[in-house]
Amino acid sequence: MRNPKRFGHLQDCKIAYFSLKEDVLFMPVTLKDVAAAAGCSVTTTSRALGGYDDVNEQTRERIITIAKELGYQPNVLARQLQAQRADTIGFVFPQAAHQPDDDFFSLLMKGISYVASNNQFDLLVSSQLTQEDELRAYQRIAAGRRVDGVIVARTLRNDPRIKYLKNNNYPFVVSGRSAPDEPDDFPYVDADSQAGIRQVVAHFIGYGHEHIGFISSPPELAFTEYRLHGYRDALAAANLPYRADYVVHGDLQRESGQQAAEDLLRRHPQITAIVSSNDAMALGAMAAVQSIGKQVGVDVAIGGFDDIPLARYSVPGLTTVRQPIYHIGELVAEMLIQIINGEAPEETGILLEPELIVRDSSGQPL
What we know:
By secondary structure, the chain is α/β, with parallel strands linked by helices. The protein is 41% helix and 14% strand. The chain has a 6-stranded parallel beta sheet with strand order 2-1-3-4-5-11, with helices on both faces. A 4-stranded parallel beta sheet has the order 7-6-8-9, with helices on both faces.
């Protein structure tokens, strides 16, 4: 039962309550209840709770206090319809997110959801198994205005999702850039993949390795060329030749990394270090080295990219390039909410510097 004693300190308020039996469930507190308790009109109460500046500050604070004490919850649906907003951002898990060894998307999601929650936005998540289904999910979300904007992750070459969102003037931010030969004409946050791979390859060269294999990511991903360029840059800086037969492609999963490393070591037993485009494939490469009776960090050094949690707990620990995945999630969500709110972000293209993390898979200098 509503307790009149809760409002006894509000001397200028008209107290209204109902005397009902203990076993009767009460209706939710309404705007009219708050107005009656505050001794104000419904219009004034509504505008005070809505943050309008034509209500004086003392009255606004009093109304807000009463609303909180009463347990008033605004009619969110009505407010959203009036404002033509859903107070929701969307995120579609791409096909690549269904890889059991890749923690990238779970870390990204945590950063996104933290910022969304802090800004009173809900997060609508859709999970799709194919690229075609993924694009249809964006089309459903955008056409139905179910969210105020979306976050796109893991860019593709000539990305159809980005084309669709741009053509429909739908608010979006991307985790990742376009491929090097495509324009970055959209808001994005990314880690400098090229610099990151260059760091880990240079690290192995500094340890005396001259025959370094590279497990590349699928060609259709936008970051693939950046990471391959980083590999070539480091070789060129050390006056080492680039050999195309030292490069193989995987699908970002551990099993493909193991197969790729086995292939490299079988065809080129002189290879003493292998760098992978992501940690999951690097962990697979470690398994390949161990399966042929060699030791990681002793016979073959292994390096990865991402610094997922498994990288630090593998045996031996995996040398890798740390990109701040959680922070990228925070930044893309912050940028999207600014755009939704009609604010111009200070930067619409953020490129973060990754960090080389050296662990036991590097071994010792030769």
